[in-house]
Design brief:
Elements (H helix, E strand, L loop, with lengths): L2 H29 L5 H17 L9 H24 L16 H12 L9 H4 L2 H31 L9 H26 L10 E4 L5 E4 L4 H10 L20 H25 L3 H28 L30 H14 L14 H12 L10 H21 L4 E2 L2 E2 L2 H25 L3 H4 L6 H16 L14 H30 L16 H38 L2
Antiparallel strand pairs: 1-2, 3-4
Helix pairs in contact: 1-9, 1-11, 2-7, 3-4, 3-6, 3-17, 4-17, 6-7, 6-8, 6-13, 6-17, 7-8, 9-10, 9-11, 10-11, 10-12, 10-18, 11-12, 12-16, 12-18, 13-14, 13-18, 14-16, 14-17, 16-17, 16-18
């Protein structure tokens, strides 16, 4: 560990904490329909969208209608993106004359980006045309992010409203989120990235002559505009195969910090939006504190493991100590312009947020570093998570926490003035168990069938970790990968697509159901038996519940993968 690394971490944490409140306030005003300077200027566009779509913005929906609209909208997005990928060779803006994407890969990619996962079983610059990147990938990045935020807001409305049968209007929510939150951030930041050297062009790939006379092709395209939304939306899909490790997507350490801020800001700020909407900002700060505690634990484990270096090198006389000539630690798979410090921070941010963008190759991290990345994703997207999904994931665990506390004192659990009954508990369990079922079930099948084992690039515990990481990343809607596993096969394309579908829609539909039942309930005044949910005690209870549930669910699988690999690595370094 170095002081430069800790300085970057401190700057990042300070900026996130400073922006949570003002951005949370802005998001709350946007979704409440209150006038902001952006709405006053773009309001006519919002009205035109409603008129063209035949939407009455004053008419709200009950949760079944809201869920139906969401599912139909996402199905249309999947079909549209699939069609673009399959017809790519016949469509314009394809200067490299790339062929159509294979059916199984096209389906995997369409589901991936429509579910805000951004799992990529392809190299972007060699597989997708400019039109596919823009009209397909970038558009779904905007819309899938808007859907996640909308679902979170409906759950917050469920707590904030009393005896109301509706939870909002899906079409109004996604329009306002896209128009007033995502676009106003994306445009100026895309210009900043272009200023820093990220390409933004429709020109074909450039052919250059190197200093030694060889010919090299430099891929380029409309990168800056897609780069910003892949980070802001929690989608994470890279224009290039190397993602944010590529100098054309992430030119320097400054853009690296900006990219990490984009990944975290909306998810973190939504905790403040939650507090404002339920009329008690302390509730939001408790959730933010729980997220910060879990993130700190994961980052400390990851940075410590990567800074310690590779134990296998200890007996070879390889110097891994940080000094004036090197940053030290495990530099395998990392960009030297970022070093271990920013690479560890970026990896922690991207797995804690379910974004999936990477500036280092996660497959080359130490076993304990890889364990930290897996653990971040396995906690059901609650460590900030994707925009929206982190908030509703944390609120689901809050319901579990108050339910457990209620059992201990023999009292019907309450949260924010709402009685938590059997229906909410059942829907919460369905949402929280769907992701582990997809992860463990998919990894189990892939670990024993020939089609799953055929993709392994490594045997033993690390090979199992690669499979486990793939299904964890897919079901947790993350999208990053241990790249040693070859996944562009019908088995993995279809299997991971199913995991992504379950990880998204088997969670959001129960959340909408919970939102509807809570909104219809009357508010119950706090009493002497009500569990306080605005202090450190509840934050600790919440963190404890998340860690215990995650440990009981995934510890056996982690022991077979990264833990076993770490033990073998330590044992091997002694001989």
């Amino acid at each position: 560990m170095t002081w430069e690394g800790w300085t970057q971490i401190a700057i990042f944490a300070a900026v996130v904490a400073a922006l949570v409140k003002p951005l949370g306030f802005y998001i709350e005003r946007v979704l409440a329909g209150e006038g902001t300077w952006v709405q006053r200027r773009l309001g006519p566009i919002e009205g035109a969208v409603y008129r063209l779509a035949g939407v009455d913005p004053a008419r709200e929906q009950a949760w079944p209608a809201y869920a139906t609209s969401l599912l139909v909208f996402n199905l249309a997005g999947i079909l549209l993106l699939y069609a673009i990928l399959r017809l790519q060779a016949r469509l314009p803006l394809n200067p490299e004359a790339l062929p159509a994407v294979a059916p199984d890969l096209a389906l995997n990619t369409a589901i991936s980006f429509a579910t805000n996962t951004s799992w990529q079983a392809y190299g972007g610059e060699t597989t997708l045309s400019y039109l596919s990147q823009m009209a397909g990938i970038a558009v779904q990045s905007f819309l899938s992010c808007a859907v996640g935020i909308a679902v979170a807001i409906t759950l917050v409305r469920g707590f904030a409203r009393c005896s109301v049968p509706t939870i909002g209007n899906f079409w109004v929510d996604i329009t306002r989120i896209t128009l007033y939150i995502l676009l106003p951030v994306s445009i100026p930041v895309a210009l900043f990235l272009a200023w820093q050297g990220v390409p933004q062009t429709f020109a074909a790939h450039a052919t250059v002559t190197t200093l030694d006379g060889a010919t090299q092709i430099l891929a380029r395209g409309p990168v800056a505009s897609q780069d910003v939304i892949k980070l802001l939306s929690g989608d994470g899909g890279g224009f290039f195969n190397a993602n944010s490790a590529h100098p054309f997507e992430n030119p320097n350490a400054v853009t690296g910090i900006v990219e990490m801020l984009l990944i975290f800001l909306v998810g973190a700020a939504l905790t403040n939006t939650f507090g404002r909407m339920v009329r008690d900002e302390r509730q939001g700060w408790v959730l933010f504190a729980a997220m910060a505690a879990l993130f700190t634990i994961g980052l400390a484990t990851l940075y410590g493991a990567e800074s310690a270096g590779n134990p296998a090198f200890a007996g070879l006389g390889v110097d891994q100590v940080a000094g004036a000539a090197q940053s030290g630690g495990n530099l395998e798979g990392k960009e030297v312009r970022f070093g271990v410090g920013q690479s560890s921070l970026f990896a922690a941010v991207t797995t804690a947020s379910s974004d999936g963008a990477v500036n280092a190759m996660h497959d080359s991290f130490t076993p304990l570093g890889g364990l930290a990345l897996l653990a971040n994703m396995m906690l059901d997207e609650v460590i900030v998570g994707g925009p929206g999904s982190g908030l509703f994931g944390m609120l689901l665990f809050a319901l579990v926490a108050v339910f457990i506390a209620g059992l201990m004192v023999g009292r019907t659990p309450e949260y924010l003035g709402k009685k938590i009954t059997a229906n909410e508990v059942k829907m919460t369990m369905l949402a929280l168990l769907s992701v582990p079922a997809a992860i463990l079930g998919g990894a189990a099948v892939a670990s024993v069938v020939p089609a799953g084992l055929a993709g392994l690039g490594n045997a033993g515990p690390h090979g199992f970790s690669e499979i486990l990481y793939a299904f964890t990343s897919a079901a947790a809607t993350n999208g990053s990968a241990f790249a040693g596993l070859s996944v562009n096969t019908p088995f993995y394309n279809l299997g991971l697509a199913l995991a992504m579908f379950i990880g998204r829609f088997m969670v959001v539909v129960p959340v909408l159901c919970i939102a509807g039942t809570l909104a219809a309930k009357r508010s119950v005044p706090a009493s002497a038996g009500t569990l306080p949910t605005t202090g450190a005690q509840f934050a600790g209870l919440l963190v404890g519940v998340i860690v215990i549930v995650g440990g009981l669910t995934f510890l056996p699988a982690l022991v077979l993968g990264p833990v076993a690999e770490h033990v073998a690595l330590i044992a091997g370094s002694r001989y």
